[in-house]
Structure formats: C-alpha cells, structure tokens
Automatic annotation (TrEMBL):
Domain Histone-binding protein RBBP4-like N-terminal: 33-104
Annotated WD repeat ranges: 180-224, 293-322, 330-362, 385-417
Any one GO BP annotation for this protein: chromatin organization
Taxonomy, superkingdom: Eukaryota
InterPro entries the record matches: Histone-bd_RBBP4-like_N (IPR022052), WD40/YVTN_repeat-like_dom_sf (IPR015943), WD40_PAC1 (IPR020472), WD40_repeat_CS (IPR019775), WD40_repeat_dom_sf (IPR036322), WD40_rpt (IPR001680), WD_repeat_RBAP46/RBAP48/MSI1 (IPR050459)
Keyword terms, alphabetized: Chromatin regulator, Nucleus, Repeat, WD repeat
Name assigned to this protein: Histone-binding protein RBBP4-like N-terminal domain-containing protein
SUPFAM superfamilies: WD40 repeat-like
One Pfam family named in its UniProt record: CAF1C_H4-bd
Any single GO CC term annotated in Swiss-Prot or TrEMBL for this entry: nucleus
Protein localization: Nucleus
Residues spanning the signal sequence: none
Length: 437
C-alpha cells in the first residue's frame, strides 16, 4: 500500500470518528435540553414525583401488592408501599433490594373516605421518602426479577442463564434459596402465573431461543435444584418476553427476535396454537421490513386483548379473535419499545428513547394519526414521563394504589411518580352526565 493511500485511509477514519463524536455530543445536548424543559414543567405535570440516584443502575423493578396505613408524629396518615429492585453492576456486588416508599393517603381509593384530611402530611415532604429495608446478595447482574404475590417468592434472571429463587419472608437469609438450571444464555423473559390455583408455575425464556416452564412447589423448603416440566423450542431466535393470560391460566404469549408472536396452550402438545410471523412491520414502508418484538403483555380484564412492543418503535394492540391483523398501532416512541404494562384501561410503555408513555385504550376507536404530518400525535397518548436521561430499563404500575408508577433507567435514576389529571376527563364527563340527569 502506498503512503498516499495509507494517509487517505487514515484521514477518512479520523473524519468518520470525528463525525460520530460530533453527533454524540449533539445528541447529549438535546437530551440535556429536553430534561431541563421537563424539570421546569414537572410541578404542573405530577401529583407526586420522587427521584433518587442509585449507586448502580437498576435493570428491573416490581411492586409488592400490599401496602400499609401509618401515622407520623403529628398523627397524620400516610401510606407505606414497597417494591423490589435488582442492581446492574459489572464491578461491584449486585443485590436485590426491598425498598419502602412513603406516599400521601389520597392515593388509596379504599381508605380515602376514612381520612378526615386529604392534605399531604407535612413531615412527609421533609423526610426521605425512599428507604432500603433489606437486601440480598445476587451473583452477577439482575436481568429481571418477578415476585410471586401469593407467597412472596422472588425469581430472578441472571446474566448466565440461571434462574434464582429468593424467599423474602425468610428474615435470616441473605442470598438465594434455589437455582433453576436450564438456559445456556442470559435472558429477560420471566413471569409467574397470576392465577392462585397455578401460583407454582413460572415461565422463563432466554437468548438460547427456548422457553422453560417450571413447577415450584414451595413448602418452607426449596429443592436445591429443579428441572423444567416443559421445554418449548418453537421460536427461531431469542425469546425476549412472556405473558400469561390473566383469565385462562394455561395460555401464555411469547415474542422473539424472529419477528413473530406465539400463543401457547399448555393443555395441548402440538406446539403454539397461534403463530403470527412478521407481526411488527411498517405497512407504509416500501421495503416492508420485519422487526424484532421485545415485549408482550395480556390485558388484565379483557381475556382476548394483548399488546406487543417492537424495534419498529411501535406498539401493536391485538385481539385473539382476529389474531393476524392488529386492532391498532400506537405511535409515539422514537426508538425500540422494550417494556409494556397494563393497568385497567391504560397501557404503560418503556423505550430506549428515554421515555415512559401512558396510553388510554378508551380512545382506540379514534384511529391512527397521519404520520405524514410532522406534528402528528396519537390520540391514545395520555402522558409522557421525561424524567430520565438514559434508556428505560423497566416501569411498573402499583397494582392497588391509584396511578402510582416506579421507573428505572440507564442513567441510574430510580423514580416514583403519579401523573396529574390522568383520567380527569372521564370524571368531568360523569359529573356532566349526572347534572343532565
């Protein structure tokens, strides 16, 4: 190679690196500017907002069902809720942490009528609202954690494929009770069956393209090792996420990098009962590319309804009664959607674009926005949480407290928040209807 050619190649590499560096710096400036704007407007957007910087980022968060009503020194009521988080550190010791958060009593519909005053307790504003109650050592990063709400048994997905089981009721134990060995690569798909009669059933999936079904018989003592009772190998690529049907306890959905979603029924041994390929693609695109599907979630109350989130930046709403065509595409994220969570008629979505969005499914019939317009906004989009400056790892609704959400992200921030005015339009409509009557 001549010196001239070598110099030209080196110059090209240097220019390319310089352009990448400039693009990165501009992107960082944009993120910081957007965060500053959000911070200025946040007092108007939230009824509640706690933000904490963690020593190590959390990859996974999961609320516990129960909460308690407490009184402070001034005899004012407040609520103590709890959630679990798993840390993501490549150098230091990793943990599962049980964290309590103090929130105003007005978040509980069940107890709201019992309170004489609805003001936020004064001491609550001056105190530290998040406190670490307990922590358990975890070998390696906590890719995903899920709590069994019936017995407080916690399952975690590790970065080597093992599934670990923790008993958070055992106050003397500081590490896991049992190891489930099957997966040969790390994964993120993990979910307990939500039906009490099937509470022992746990699903897991990983980058080895397999789904494992476990039967965890818990009676104070866990076996040191368990074997899966069923192995499903119907996907051709990484299986990213799983979701049990909330009403039919033998049915679950799975999604994969192979661009398909599948519906499985454990009562049948003939493979998936529904297998839709190319489920995420842009119908307006000329090349009609298919994208990996990263998240799936069944609706809690509508048996046939579920949602998928893909690397095409969209969310698809599906109905099992017509499984080949989505009911609706939700458009609002600028990067791949990696997490979904239903709560009543709302859907929470998290993305690599640093945003958590809340969608109102009551507005599905209003139709998709026109993407040809630069200022298009999906009519289903109800709220955007912009409190993070890194990609969202996970967000979770509290199952019992009204519109209370926890989110964690790559920026190391852990945030507990409640959007202001979410659902107020329906309250106003009901009040107007009552006046008319």
């Amino acid at each position: 190679m001549s010196a001239a050619v070598s110099t030209e190649n080196n110059s090209s590499i240097t220019n390319g690196a310089s352009e990448i560096n400039i693009e990165f710096q501009n992107n960082e400036k944009l993120i910081n500017e957007e965060y500053k704007i959000w911070k200025k407007t946040s007092p108007l957007l939230y009824d509640l907002l706690y933000s904490y910087s963690c020593e190590a980022p959390a990859l996974s968060v999961n609320w516990l069902n129960e909460f308690s009503i407490e009184k402070n020194d001034n005899n004012e009521n407040f609520i103590e809720a709890k959630f679990l988080m798993g840390t993501h550190s490549k150098e230091d010791q990793n943990y599962i942490k049980l964290i309590s958060v103090l929130v105003p009593p007005t978040l509980s519909n069940k107890y709201k009528s019992d309170f004489e005053a609805t003001q936020i307790p004064k001491n609550l504003l001056r105190s530290r609202q998040l406190n670490i109650i307990r922590e358990w050592n975890h070998p390696g990063e906590v890719n995903k954690l899920r709590i069994n709400q019936f017995n407080n048994l916690v399952a975690t997905h590790t970065n080597n494929g093992d599934i670990l089981l923790f008993d958070i009721n055992d106050e003397n134990c500081k590490t896991h009770k049992s190891t489930l060995k099957f997966h040969t690569k790390q994964g993120f798909g993990l979910e307990w069956n939500s039906n009490e009669s099937k509470k022992n059933l746990l699903l897991s999936s990983s980058e080895d393209c397999k789904i494992a079904l476990w039967d965890i018989n818990y009676n104070e003592k866990l076996l040191s090792e368990n074997k899966p009772i069923n192995i499903i190998s119907s996907h051709e690529n990484i299986v990213n996420d799983l979701s049990w049907n909330k009403s039919i306890d033998s049915v679950f959905a799975s999604v994969s990098d192979d661009s398909s979603y599948q519906i499985h029924d454990l009562r049948l041994a003939s493979g998936p009962i529904i297998h839709i390929t190319d489920a995420h693609h842009d119908p307006d695109s000329e090349n009609n590319l298919s994208f990996p599907i990263n998240a799936v979630e069944f609706n809690e109350s509508v048996t046939t309804l579920f949602a998928t989130g893909g690397s095409d930046n969209s969310i698809q709403i599906w109905d099992l009664r017509n499984p080949s065509i989505p009911l609706r595409r939700l458009l609002g994220h600028n990067d791949p959607v990696i997490g979904l969570k239903f709560h009543e008629n709302y859907l929470l979505s998290s993305s690599i674009d640093n945003r958590v969005l809340i969608w109102d499914l009551n507005r599905l019939e209003e139709g998709e926005p026109d993407k040809r317009k630069s200022d298009y906004i999906d009519p289903c989009l109800s709220f955007m949480h912009g409190g993070h400056t890194g990609k969202i790892y996970e967000a979770d609704w509290h199952p019992n407290l009204e519109n209370l959400i926890v989110s964690c992200a790559e920026d190391g921030l852990l945030e507990v928040w409640r959007p202001a005015h979410l659902g107020d339009e329906y309250i106003e409509e009901e009040e107007e209807a009552e006046k008319d009557e």
